[in-house]
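Retro notes - structure team

What went well: the batch runner handled both jobs without manual restarts.
What didn't: labels got mixed up in the shared folder, which is why I'm recording both outputs here explicitly, each with its sequence directly above its tokens.

Job 1
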Amino acid sequence: MKTTKSLKMISIGVLIFGVLVSGCINSPLTEKKTFSDGLMSFDYPGVFNTENQEINNSKIQRVAYFVSSDLFNKQYINVVKNKTAISPTELRDETLSINRNSSTSEVLSSTTETNPNGIVVETIRMTIVYKENGEKTSHNVFYFEINDTVYVIGVYGPYSNKQQITTTANIIFQSIK
């Protein structure tokens, strides 16, 4: 009797796993949304919600801010436009200089790559430890120019979510156009 019940439970588990793996059920982790400001666009995972946190000063203007709804994999996406006469490379180098000279940052890599859509993207991947509370965070920051507008997209969150942050950053990088 117990063997039959166990076999039924295993069969149901295998069936549910098969449906999930086959993609018959979309989850917010596999669904993608697209952001566009009219000049630039990119895809991002469906677990993110738009937050209204405006920044508009003499140097930058926030274009969008997203927060993941997944409490266990908290992530943030910050999108800004630069308002000064600076190239993506100069902006990236300025950020690198600040973080390399900081006792709380570790720059893991800095690259220049062209994504599949032909957009040249300056990238910094780094870890930051905040002095106030010792929290360690993972950051992926993209600098690029479209139609004479320099954009910066930052994907970041707790270091414990580094892999998911990197996955989100890769989705964004691949889709920027």
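Job 2
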Amino acid sequence: MTVAPTDLKEAHVRVWALIEFGLESNSSWREMFVDYGLLATVGFDQPFDEDDDKVSELAEQLDLSAEVVLGELCFFIRQNCLWTTDELVADMDRAINVLVEHGSHEQIVDGLLDFSPYAKRPEVLRALRLSAAKRDDAAAFQSAFSKFDQ
């Protein structure tokens, strides 16, 4: 069993080291953090809390409180997992699939366009429209686009 760190700096180093190791060695972790990064990038709340299985697992492994681990996970995601506009356009289908689980169609459209630099908004909107048109819930997206059609 590990000894709990005596200060937050040590906790920070230990949590980040374990996250980085997990990201290097585990593809499901990479997928999860890319998804979390997308949610953070476009302004959605974090999709996990202190009771999340991954938070509990890390807290137990490191002998830290879930609160400390959650704070470090959120900080890690904000610092390391932000999407660029180009990545968003290239992988819009995945972005919509992730975001639709956490917000309304209007929130998704608004969040993606708010995140995008003004000059890139037409490109993001075009990719968003193409991806949304392929979905079963395309009609719900169409109503979210209506304010941009005026």
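One thing worth noting from job 2: Residues 8-80 form one domain.
We'll revisit the folder naming next retro.
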